[in-house]
Q: What sequence folds into this?
């Protein structure tokens, strides 16, 4: 079915003044402006202003044009009316474009526009991009205030040695929220399933085939959303966990693309879900290299380490090889 378009919805690039039509009529009739002005008892300069769009076609002028050129006065007045409407619409359109340009300048200062372009999240139309950015950050216009209130950003004001960009971290984090909100619902979360989940994941780590897809499938069954969000430049983030809606979400970056780093980061965030987020769903845990290690992060690190290699197993290994040389120990550790 064809879509009906209202003419008023189609804003032209330029507005055409009725004076241009008068000029076309004069050219077609090989009539001089002076001759028409004389017939209308009007100074030639006044007629020239109308033809050049500097004056409007009034009802009196329209009636005279009808008498001389044989074209209805209503036609000339409708042209003038449409010209006035088009001018108003064009001005409104320009004002809107200027406003969007100013908004985009601010957005570009407080979010990673180039990375959203790389991910094909935004395109070339500024008005649409603004809507998308506002949707990602969950704001209408308070992007600067949202940026200023970010707790994690204070980590990067303490050390100039860290190669971190607060804007990129801010953008990455909110893109993770957005991606989670777009995911389909998963199973109900079972807070008593931690041990079973870890056993299943450890079996998966050993096999290490289609690991990311398998992780997503396993966590989904346990009521946890799982996302891989590409790392932005200068965003030393390994993992992120938060609660959104009815389910927790775990996000990894694959910053260090190795199975041991992947397993450790995943188990680290799983501990936050079962031990921290379950009691405080407003809290968010983000693993940023160089950030201060608090008690919750220490607990999550210890859990991830012990989940991968049990304490008893590790102690037994150390006792068996405590007397060998450092070089030999490195080889044994690698074999272990």
A:
């Amino acid at each position: 079915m064809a879509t009906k378009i209202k003419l008023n919805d189609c804003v032209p690039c330029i507005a055409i003044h009725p004076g241009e039509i008068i000029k076309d009529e004069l050219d077609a009739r090989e009539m001089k402006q002076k001759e028409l002005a004389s017939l209308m008892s009007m100074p030639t300069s006044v007629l020239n202003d109308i033809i050049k769009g500097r004056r409007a076609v009034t009802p009196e002028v329209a009636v005279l044009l009808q008498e001389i050129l044989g074209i209805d006065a209503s036609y000339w007045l409708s042209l003038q009316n449409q010209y006035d409407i088009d001018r108003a619409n064009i001005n409104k359109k320009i004002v809107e474009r200027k406003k969007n340009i100013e908004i985009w300048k601010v957005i570009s200062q407080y979010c990673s526009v180039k990375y959203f372009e790389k991910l094909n999240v935004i395109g070339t139309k500024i008005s649409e991009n603004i809507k998308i950015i506002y949707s990602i950050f969950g704001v209408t216009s308070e992007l600067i205030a949202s940026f200023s209130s970010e707790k994690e950003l204070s980590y990067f004001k303490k050390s100039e040695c860290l190669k971190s960009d607060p804007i990129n971290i801010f953008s990455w984090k909110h893109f993770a929220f957005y991606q989670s909100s777009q995911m389909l619902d998963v199973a109900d979360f079972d807070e008593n399933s931690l041990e079973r989940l870890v056993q299943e994941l450890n079996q998966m780590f050993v096999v290490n085939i289609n690991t990311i897809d398998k992780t997503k499938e396993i966590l989904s069954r346990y009521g946890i959303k799982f996302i891989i969000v590409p790392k932005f430049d200068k965003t030393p983030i390994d993992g992120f966990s938060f609660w959104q809606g009815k389910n927790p979400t775990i996000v990894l970056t694959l910053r260090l693309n190795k199975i041991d780093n992947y397993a450790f980061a995943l188990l680290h965030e799983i501990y936050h879900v079962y031990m921290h987020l379950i009691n405080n769903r407003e809290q968010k845990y983000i693993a940023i290299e160089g950030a201060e290690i608090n008690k919750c992060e220490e607990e999550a690190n210890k859990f991830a380490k012990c989940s991968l290699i049990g304490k008893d197993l590790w102690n037994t290994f150390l006792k068996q090889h405590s007397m060998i040389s450092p070089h030999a120990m490195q080889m044994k550790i690698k074999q272990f």
